[in-house]
Amino acid sequence: MMRGSIPEYFPPAPGLPGDPEAYLQVVENTYVTDAFHSLSIEGYQVSLQLIKRVRSGTWNPEANEADKSLRDTLAAQGYWRAFQKLKESLTKVIEGGSAGVIADEDHVGGYRKVIAPSATTGLVKARDLAGYRNASVYIRRSRHVPLNRDAVRDALPAFLERLAQETKPSVRVALGHSVFF
What we know:
Layout lengths: L19 H10 L1 H11 L6 H9 L8 H5 L1 H24 L4 H22 L28 H17 L3 H12 L1
């Protein structure tokens, strides 16, 4: 990647928000559409209503057999849990922490949040909570294929090290997308 040219394609970084609570509320307000689109491009059959039900806590696999068996609902539940973890990490950045260092410290916890609902119901094995994804992922209707599971394990340490060293947000964004998307 030609790091030197990346910043010229982006506007100047806005810096940290003046009102962190208002900023986090904007992030919260984008959750439903973000989750819907992200899960949809991975091939899950989700609806805005499902995303809202998971977010509101009315998703209940103990009381509702359909919730327990629906792969799509489990993906939505995992996405909601990971979103909460992401907000915790974002709060640390807003409070002045290094985005790269925080990503390094928090990424495994975020992964576990995504996978835990599927492990709880037995859709995936509990051992899948350790490490990184154990299967390939695809982006629906795309020719691009994200890194395979072995390549993720190889690329992640170098990515996190570089991310922690990078000071320009535009380069961090480009770096993440070029490596993992």
